[in-house]
Task: structure prediction
Amino acid sequence: MELRENSRRIAEYKRRAGELVERMTLEEKIFQLLHDAPAIPRLGVPAYNWWNEALHGVARAGTATVFPQAIGLAAAFDEDLMEMVGGAVSTEARAKFNAQQAYGDRDIYKGLTVWSPNVNIFRDPRWGRGHETYGEDPWLTARLGVRYVRGLQGTDPDHLKTAACAKHFAVHSGPEGLRHEFDARVSRQDLFETYLPAFEALVREAGVEAVMGAYNRVNGEPCCASPTLLGDILRDRWGFDGHVVSDCWAIRDIHEGHGVAGSAEQSAALALKNGCDLNCGSAFGHLLQAVADGLVTEEQVDRACRRLFTTRMKLGLFDPPETVAYSAIPYEAVDSPAMRELALDAARRTLVLLKNDGGLLPLDRNGLGTVGVVGPNADSRRALTGNYAGTASRYVTVLEGIQDYLGGGVRVLYSQGCHLYKESVEGLARPGDRLSEVKAVCAASDVVIVCLGLDGDLEGEQGDAGNSYAAGDKPDLSLPGLQEEVLRTCVASGKPVVAVLLSGSALAVDWAAEHVPAILQCWYPGEQGGTAIAQVLFGEYAPEGKLPVTFYRGDHALPPFTDYAMAGRTYRYMEGPALYPFGYGLSYTAFAVTEAALSGDEVTAAGLTVRCRVTNRGGRAARATVQVYVKADRPGTPNAQLKGLKKLFLTPGETAWTEISLPVAAFSLCDESGARTVEPGRYGVYVGQSQPDERSRELLGDAPVRLEAVCRERLEI
Result:
């Protein structure tokens, strides 16, 4: 009944959109296909700017809650949290929109069409925009992306809360400096096994309203004008019924960068004909001439225009406000105490404890007289936010969080230590101009907390990051500048050292892994990051995060950055041990996963269910993360892949049973043609707290339980 009602509503939106478009002139219709769509006063159509961002909060439009960056949210390994954050972001988006509309403000970043989430696969740790994603795994990316979209789009039966957008479609993950002319060559096997599953899930499961085409080409076709991606796959195979938007000024790249078309008119016509409906940029302004030249038809313009006005109808933008439930959300919902508390809770859940020799953490505040806080990210707001962020009313840096937590009872000494990437802090000073201060702080402290890593100026989008190295990409995986020298100086002091890493990507911290007793990976933790980090360092909250990316031992073993083949990339295809593996993360307590069993021993179209017992054997309450991996036991197949997940909060000594569903697709792989099947043979199912690789076993001192199932006949998905 609900599905039928929804279909009727959508049909009504389409009817109304079609009737409105029929009353427009060709020129009016064409200018509605630009991201900054002008008003049509004679038809009662207000101006609307389609460009808004909501990657981890409402971005670039003033005050809004800044949640942890996407890669950090992914580290929580928590689908429910993703939907909660998505719902909070869309609440603030509606509250701000309602206020802006009341004062006639229809500027950029103030609409309800939010160009998030980014579900590209973080296949290479050098990519600057990887921190916008949910990591390197297609299954995890799909699950988190689906729930974030549901949070953004809401549950109202009549209207979308906001319109989410899956980007960047597709096969897009650097290099940033080449993106306007780059051709990503990829096999159909890698395309359908790695690069497309998250997009498919967002379309088919979450009903994402928009899809954004990428800048690059894929196998020779510009993504924003690709008959394969936009026609054959997105609309024909997946049944996508929303609108497609170009990345910003990507249509211009079709002739200027890719050389596929010979003029702006040809590029605009090629994109429109192949299914791009909305142009972020100005190239579609050339469609008037393209129609006159016979390069594109008015009906093709109409088709795109109808799709765009259908989205606006779904958002309730042509309905009386009193009939749209979300129009009642007040401005006071923005930056509320509840929002700040959610940002804090999310930040705590994202932190990943990589090392804790001798149980150095959590620190006992009662046994400390002086704490040293050192490093370029210790008092950096930029290291809290990542990119595509809003403006918080208050930011809590790591230094401030520790100072606030300890109060006046413990002295906190601080040194910046070094510039984030330059050799000196002061321009006229000699290299290492803060090292003597670091030594003084260490000498006077009982424990030293060293805050290192990157920020959004060193890794990010081309033209957005201030990075002079590689257009937003990282040149390598090392700590930049003098950061490792500062770390070595602290360790040489003989005082206990905790390394706090703030970055949006993997760093090759091999020396730290060998010489520093405790390492906490904190990503870009958002406005409340310093409070969250302090609470975890001092034991008020137990770390629960898991790595959504592999931490490599340097970049020397990585394939070339421009090679989009998955061989040798990510935990699914790499050979040899990682420094810190995907799915890994320690806790302050000890969990045991026991009595695991499958609902059957045969893989059928109905799939299987894993049931297991989880016990908190330690002395602290914490969340356990049960992970299920599947491995086809035959040559030439990927390593064990994450296919199931469950979070459980357990008090000391508490035991709980849990079930995790494995649909038949969890056992499937793609062949060289891209067809997804489950082939006959044996399958290993691993249930535990990590993937079943040797390095995870070494680090955790524990191994997942192996179960087995068999497939007796080929199953097509």
